[in-house]
Every structure is written in structure tokens, then in C-alpha cells.
Automatic annotation (TrEMBL):
Pfam families: TctC (PF03401). The keyword Magnesium does not apply. PANTHER family: BLR1237 PROTEIN (PTHR42928:SF5), TRICARBOXYLATE-BINDING PROTEIN (PTHR42928). The keyword Signal applies. This is Bug family tripartite tricarboxylate transporter substrate binding protein. Residues 1-25 form the signal peptide. It comes from the Bacteria. Belongs to the UPF0065 (bug) family. It comes from Candidimonas humi. Keywords: Signal. InterPro entries: BUG.
């Protein structure tokens, strides 16, 4: 009897193993959702939709983009952190959600490292300092001079308190010793609309969102915030080159799954993302939006976030930035 039970148990165990292996090998067998933790129409949303379309082609399943904005990206990221770790609910994380928010919110509803299984970086997207066409400046130095000549009169828009756009403005205030008013918006598109209509003076805007308006002449680009010039807009100087040495704010987008997602599922997703980003048409689209394609291993992704959290915590503390 005992021999029979042992044989039966081994058979059941083998069957379960084969079943699990088959299920994992079949991934994906239903639609995948990528949550963008910001409003539709912004830079994250624009690039994610193009990536999703190409992932659908290679994974042979619909890849649906869901915009779940709120609390500086926290609501959308928390939704994904609490989703089933099966590879069917993903997030397009950003510098803000994983590096800035941990130092900005006292009670973050997720752990920016432990709550997720990183898949890969997708893009490096510098912010670009832009003024509207009515502002009589053509360089960073001229903008600083105008701000000093009219203390408290100039204003800058951001996509919300504590965003990289906001902290870029605060860093400019600190380093240039100027007094300008911060005007936070809930939606990136509304911030840009008011900037164009001269309701605010300037802003640090994600390149994909800013570029069409720069090309139309409604906005004037002065500098990019990265450590190096943008690969897609090399004519624009960095903030350091334009007159503020040491000013560097780099933004990224990256795909993440909930923590404990099976490694083989993460690897399948990563392979699909790398294949999509390698397509000439995808690279060209990203380039037209001012984004540089950047990829990573999950381990490299995690290490970058941990390093970034330390840097942003200091910037946040020095700026006095806070959320209500």
C-alpha cells in the first residue's frame, strides 16, 4: 500500500510540474495590461502606446494601456504592486515613481524596490527647459537675468508637486539664486496649454510632450537637463553648458511587473521589449519624440533605482519640496 501511495504521489507531483511548465511556456495566453500612472497624452503615455502596439505583435496577444493617474503616480504603481504576479498587469515606471516619491511621501503605499520585479529600462527622456514664444529670452542666461530683474514675477509650471519637472524648477531656483513662482498642475497637457498661452513663463517639460510645440514655434527650447546632450536633439545645450555647471536631472521610463512574478515570465517580457525597441521604426518614433532607447537587465535596473533614491532624497531635502 505504501509503495502504491508513493508511486501515486510521484505521479501527481510529476503531473503538477508538467502542468506548471506548460502554463508558463504558454505565457501569454490572454491580454496584457500596462498601467501608465499618469494622465493620457503625456510623454509616458505616448511612448508606452507605441511600445504596447509592438509588443502585441511579438507576444500575439493584445497589450492594453491603462492610464491610472493620481498622487504623483502612486495610485497607478500601487495598483500594479497589488496585482497578481502573473505577468498580465505591468507598469511603466518612471524616475518620479521609483526614485523621487520615496523621498517625497512619508507614507508611500508601495516599496519602490521590493514591491516590483523590474523587467527592463525602456527609454531615457531628458526634460527640456522651454519658454513660450512671448518671453523675450533665447538662452538660459537670459532667462536667469530676466528673473533677477523681475523677482517674484516669473512663474514655472510643473506636472504636480514633487515631480521631476517641479524639482528641476526648484533646483534652478537654488543654483541660479532667483525668485520665481511654482504653479503645479494635475495634468501635463494642461500645464503645456497654459504655458503656450502665456499663463506661466517657463517649464521643464518631458521631451516627447515638448517637442511638437517647439517645432511649431509655440515654445522655445533653451536647454536639456541631462548630463549629456540629447542624442535626438543634439543642437540643444545641457543646462551645465548653458551656464549652470552641475545641473543634471535625468528621467527614465521602465517596465515593471509585480514582485514575485516568475523569472521566466519576466525574461519572456524582457525579450519581447528588447525585440520591439530594436525595430528601426520604433527607434525612429522614439527619436522623433526626443527619447533615447535604453535597456537594462533587471539587476541593473534595481541598482539604478537604489542609487537614484539617495540622490533625490538630498535634492528634495535641500529644496524643501513637499506634497500636501
Amino acid at each position: 500500500m505504501s509503495t502504491f501511495l508513493r508511486t501515486l504521489g510521484m505521479g501527481m507531483g510529476l503531473a503538477m510540474a508538467l502542468s506548471l511548465s506548460t502554463a508558463q511556456a504558454a505565457y501569454p495566453d490572454k491580454p496584457i495590461h500596462i498601467v501608465v500612472p499618469f494622465a493620457a497624452g503625456g510623454g509616458v503615455d505616448i511612448l508606452t502606446r507605441v511600445l504596447a502596439q509592438n509588443l502585441s505583435d511579438s507576444l500575439h496577444q493584445p497589450v492594453i494601456v491603462e492610464d491610472r493617474p493620481g498622487a504623483g503616480g502612486n495610485l497607478g504603481m500601487d495598483y500594479v504592486a497589488k496585482a497578481a504576479p502573473d505577468g498580465y498587469t505591468l507598469a511603466m515606471a518612471t524616475t518620479g515613481t521609483q526614485e523621487i516619491n520615496p523621498g517625497l511621501y512619508s507614507h508611500l503605499p508601495y516599496d519602490a524596490v521590493k514591491s516590483f520585479s523590474p523587467v527592463t529600462l525602456v527609454a531615457s527622456v531628458p526634460n527640456v527647459l522651454v519658454v513660450n514664444e512671448h518671453v523675450p529670452v533665447k538662452s538660459l542666461k537670459e532667462l536667469i537675468a530676466l528673473a533677477k530683474a523681475q523677482p517674484g514675477k516669473l512663474s514655472f509650471a510643473s506636472f504636480g508637486n514633487g515631480t521631476s519637472n517641479h524639482l528641476s524648477g526648484e533646483l534652478l531656483k537654488q543654483m541660479a539664486h532667483i525668485n520665481v513662482l511654482h504653479v503645479p498642475y494635475k495634468k501635463a497637457t494642461q500645464a503645456v496649454t497654459d504655458l503656450i498661452s502665456n499663463q506661466v513663463t517657463f517649464a521643464f517639460v518631458n521631451m516627447p510632450l515638448a517637442l511638437p510645440h517647439v517645432q511649431s514655434g509655440q515654445l522655445r527650447a533653451l536647454a536639456v537637463t541631462g548630463a549629456q546632450r540629447s542624442g535626438t536633439q543634439p543642437q540643444l545645450p545641457t543646462m551645465a553648458e548653458a551656464g549652470l555647471p552641475g545641473f543634471v536631472v535625468e528621467s527614465w521610463y521602465g517596465l515593471m511587473a509585480p514582485a514575485h512574478t516568475p523569472p521566466e515570465v519576466v525574461q519572456r517580457l524582457r525579450q519581447a521589449v528588447l525585440a520591439a525597441l530594436a525595430k528601426p521604426e520604433v527607434k525612429a518614433f522614439f527619436g522623433k519624440q526626443g527619447a533615447d532607447v535604453v535597456t537594462s537587465t533587471p539587476g541593473e535596473f534595481t541598482a539604478m533605482i537604489q542609487k537614484g533614491q539617495v540622490r533625490w532624497a538630498k535634492i528634495i531635502k535641500d529644496s524643501g519640496a513637499h506634497v500636501d
